[in-house]
Fold this protein.
Amino acid sequence: MEQIGRVQWTHALIWISILLLATTPLFAKTQSTRRTLRATLTENPPVIDGELTDPVWQHADIATNFFRAKEGETHRAELDTEVRVLYDENMLYIGVRCEEPDMKNLRETMTRRDSFVWQNDCIEVMLDTYHDQRNCYIFAVNTLGTQADERVGNESVFDMSWDAKWEVKVKKHKDNWTAEFAIPFNEVRFNRRNTTWGINFWRVRPINGQSHSWAETAFFSRVSEFGDLTGLNLEKIKTTQKIGILPYGSYRALVNRPNDLNGGVDVILPMSTHLTSNVTLNPDFSQLESDPTQINISSDRELFLPERRPFFREGAELFELPLNLFYTRRVQEIDVGAKTTGKVGNSNFAVINTYGKMIDRYDADQKKQVNLLAGRINHDIGERTVIGAMGIHKHQADRDVALLSLNGRFGLHRDWTAASQYAIDWVDGEMHWAYHTATEWIHEGWLGEVQFEEIQDGFRPNEMGLEEEAFRLARARLRYRYEFPEAHFVESFWVDTRHFYQTNAQRLLRERLSESRFYIDVGRFNFFTSGGFGRLREVGQLFDTKFIRSEIDYQAPWGQLGVINRFGTRRDEFNRFTSFSGGINLLGKFTINLDLDNFFWRVHRNTLILRLRSNYQFTQKIGWRIFVERVDERLQDEITYNFNSIFDYEFTPESHFFFVVVDNLPGDRAVFAKLAYLFERNLPDFAQFN
């Protein structure tokens, strides 16, 4: 036991030494110059119609001369993109004009809010409101007017669960398209004493596979290389916020089960422009806001889903760590919960306390009454380095569990970053540990990655969230990517080699894999091929595995076509996976996607899956999704059907009406309806807290 303790503290001392080294100022070497754009104060705000014809736009400074963002380097973009910024006491207004000589070939396939609009022609506005050069908000729109918003934490964590109420309109013209944004100051956190924000504008043009950036950076989320938005007199901003009361009611009817009626409420209390508190009573945790294939109406077992529930959304990105030790979806049927998130000085923090039921992975997935307290803090050091800590305590009748995690992301150089995490837990008086360490280097098309991870035997990550048992692994990757000049027939290619090695708690090989990949992008066609070999432990024995994979993908303005074929040997037997996928967008409102997958492995498996997904977007706020799936297990002569239908009326990002029909044969049938509506009331004395 004494020897085990020495090993544990040796790991901790090594990790703490890395943290101390990270505090030295020589690590962060970023660009020497930053672009500057002045925001213009206006008393006559523009009409948000997408036209940019209001006279007030003519008095605003122009951000132009965008760069073509190539990995590791930048060049002047051939097409013009212009951006102007205005503001008044309530809103930040952004006007964008994108030159486009080929308007007929705009890629427009995303119609639902928070879908992947960056796969289309789009513009993204990125705001570093604290000017901390690490975190930012993103507001994006494609040429159909489909909105998406998200937050970026520490230049590396993307949180699309965050939603805000903002407006944007898009207009198409003969040789350009324009967009007008209106972003309320109430929707973002900031320090009202700051007069400068970080800002960037990122344009995606799929017709030639290029991205254009206003800031001279080659990396989308490199917040430390954004430009500066100056001229902000935030003393003139109305900081009156609104207390939010979000009640919900739901009705659920399942075959062979009693129907139930449920209700609850969330309260959102903004304490200042940089602090927010939430209180929840019996919140609705029906997992609806995910893809239809993941809907769980019965709630018998949890599903791994992105966090979309209002109570957990604010500050959710803080809990995203290399070792996922706190999976908030496991917190179910809360009786009462409270949370505070925000930023004080150079530190972002979140504190959550809930009392209710959680799934116990160590007792047959039973739901048990639990008091859970979780705290998380990130502290900024220098230009790009962040260190943080997370503590969790879970109390239930049969045991107490405590967990402490230290982490850091270190900006060693503009091209070189490192990340580490060390965690220990205490269960029934015993302590065990886990760690993660990784480094990444990117330079002029080259990418190198090395990663090591270990979870000690006895460490119980499933108490909180990590779905993995004890292991030790190492990953390594080296890749080279080259992008051709704009007029070249071939747009880009890359070659990639990877190696993966993992053992279990007994240090027996679990998996070893070496793989080489090649990718080439020609116009709207993408070609991909790879090959690999390794060993895999299955049914208690090691087997050799070898494979070759090829893929071709065609990206059209109206949709997408793709074919994947992977074949090789496994357990010395031939196996093959073939997939066909196709998608089409009609009239900018109706999208249909068809997938056909077949997995064939001699006497072990022969599965044929046919999947149809569709979405009709009546308006930006009203949509109807249908998912149909047929699974044919040919060796067992079993056929199952899955059908999901969701009608969604989004009054605001927080206010929804859902009507869901689920029919699985064989399996459950269910009907579910939910109405949640956010009521807001001004807090007139709010300014005194700022």
